[in-house]
Structures are given as C-alpha cells and as structure tokens.
Amino acid sequence: MASLRNADDPESGTPLNLLDLSDSPALTDESFKAALAGRASSLISISVTGCSELTDESIKAIGGCSSLTSLDVSGCGHLTDEALQSVARGCALTSVNVSGCRNLTDEAIKAIASRSLRNLNVAYCGKLLTDESLNAVAANCPSLTSLNVADCKFITDVSIREIAANCSTLTSLDVSRCKHLTDESIKALALGCTSLSSLNVRNCEKLTDSSIKALALLPSLSSLRIFGCRKLTDESIKSLAGCANLTTLDTTKTFREIFKASRS
Prior knowledge:
Blueprint: E1 3-5, E2 18-20, H1 29-36, E3 45-47, H2 56-61, E4 70-72, H3 81-90, E5 95-97, H4 106-112, E6 119-121, H5 131-140, E7 146-148, H6 157-166, E8 172-174, H7 183-192, E9 198-200, H8 209-215, E10 223-225, H9 234-239, E11 248-250, H10 253-263
Parallel strand pairs: 2-3, 3-4, 4-5, 5-6, 6-7, 7-8, 8-9, 9-10, 10-11
Antiparallel strand pairs: 1-2
Helix pairs in contact: 3-4, 4-5, 5-6, 6-7, 7-8
InterPro entries: FBXL15_LRR (IPR057207), Leu-rich_rpt (IPR001611), Leu-rich_rpt_Cys-con_subtyp (IPR006553), LRR_dom_sf (IPR032675)
Protein name: F-box/LRR-repeat protein 15-like leucin rich repeat domain-containing protein
Region (Disordered): 1-20
C-alpha cells in the first residue's frame, strides 16, 4: 500500500523523507516519477517492492536523491545493472533489497557495494550472480550486518570465506539453497563472524555435523535453520543443546525432539 510519510506540508515545511509505494503492481514509470518530483533532495528511504511494471527509467530518477540511504526494489523484475549503477553514483546507501531482480549481474552488486552498506538482500537473483559479487561486498562493506543470498546458485565457499574474513560485524546471514557450500565456509563463518545470531542454511545439502558443531560455539546464536541438510545426524543436534540463546531451530520433527531431550 502506497504511503508518503512526513509528506510536504506548506504550513509546517516538513519535507518528505520516506516514499513507500510498495505492492502497487500497476504503478508506471510516469506515476513514480510524478510522486518523486520535487522531493528528491529530502528522501532517505524509497520502497517500491512488488511494483513489477517499473523499469530502469524510474530507478535512474532516484539517482538525484543524494540523501537516500535505504532502497527496496524487490520484485521489480525489469531492472538491469544500469539502474543500480545510476543509483550507486548518486546515493550513499546503507540498506539495499534487490531480491527477485533476476536480470541483475555482478556489475550491479559491485556498484552498490560500499563502505556505508549494512544490509544487503540479493535473494533469488541467482540466475546471473557469482562469487564476484560477494567478493566485492567482502572487500568494500566492513560494516555489513545482514546479508541474504538465498537461492544464489553460483555462490561457493570462495566468496563466503571472504565474507567471514572481512565482515566481522555480520549478525544475520541467509545462504539457503546455495548448494555448492561446504563445511569449509560455515566453519570460517563461525570463526570470523562471532556476533552471528541468525543463520539460514536450509537445503545446503553438502553440510555435515562438523559445520553445526562449529556453529554451536557462537555465543549469540538465536536462530538456526537447517531443514534439508540431509547429511546431518543426531550429533549435530546434541551439540546445539548448549546454545543458551538458541530459540529458533528449523529442522525435522525428529531432530527437534532430540534437541529438546538434550536440553532437559
């Protein structure tokens, strides 16, 4: 539902700082640019999630929003690298969500990877993204706290090791359905990202008990999703019994029962 927060008020002089046009699938480039007109300089957040008709023309117009820090274009499937590159040149973004934008390549992610970036969601952009994207994030985003690369099929241990080595402030990571990942990258995360509190490795089928045993040593781990990790055994689940802060464990019913019994 579209909303304008702190909308321009002739009497108060309060400028618009949040433009939320989410879930407006019929929104056109012309309508979006009309909503943006005259407000670009004060905007700090724009969300057009689910506005599936928007093209690069709309997103390029955002490049003039010099105060913009948060951008959500998830589900805008027509967007290309050119749009994100234009935004990156004009804005110091701290939060970017491009999930479901399947036409984006590594060039778009490299463009938005900067020292200011703290939250990045590229889930379901797996058709074209590779380790090159995450290597750029690891090299340029030392303050990253949240990363979602779910279903990015070409991501491997190589880039996740780089994230582990360079993004020590990471607290939330989703690598579900990244089926090339092995114990090597998960153990690297356990060593390098000790503040990690939420991890989703659903359907990472190569992971074994050694990954989970390493994760069990994370002091702040509160949410772990391991459903579909078929090589795991009872030993993994028992090792998690000592995780005092673990409140969400997404796994099979049998494993959940083992976890409860191990804690009692």
